[in-house]
Amino acid sequence: MHELSIAHSLVELAVEAAENTGMKRVQALYLKLGVLSGVVKESLEFSFDVVIEGTPLEGARLVIEDVPVQVFCSDCQEAHILPEPFPMRCPVCGTRTGQVLEGRELELYALEGGEENAGDDIKSPDR
After folding, report:
1. 3 is an annotated ligand-binding site residue
2. Among 16, 18, 36, 44, which is disulfide-ready with 122 (CB 3.0 to 4.6 Å)?
3. 17 near 109, Cβ under 8 Å?
4. Helix/strand/coil for 107
5. 127 residues of the chain, pLDDT tens digit each
6. In whole angstroms, how far apart are CA 26 and each of 64, 81, 122, 126?
7. pTM for the whole thing?
8. 3-114 sits in which CATH class?
9. Residue 76 annotated as binding site
């Protein structure tokens, strides 16, 4: 289950980012997760809850934004969101396409901080 190692990496990134920005407490991590990322959302959520126990992020939420597959159709000359990831065909004209514009993301894009326990600094788990 590679979601466990991904969750661990997210925690490390969030702790480092919080330290670098002077954030005292992290309440939420915001993640973009593409349909084609190869990550099972439910497994990642479970793994995140396990990994944050005993860390400075304990109690934080993982907010996941699902990113659908968006492809470029060479016949229509337009980008289209696919209702389902497969088959990779333009939903308008049916032309096959492999030009994926979005849907592979696995991106930690924001942290939400709070003032609770403002006297406690975020410390990385190794310190």
Report:
1. no
2. 18
3. no
4. strand
5. 699 999 999 999 999 999 999 998 999 999 999 999 999 999 999 999 999 999 889 999 999 999 999 999 999 999 999 999 999 999 999 999 999 999 999 999 999 997 654 434 444 444 3
6. 16, 33, 8, 18
7. 0.82
8. alpha beta
9. yes
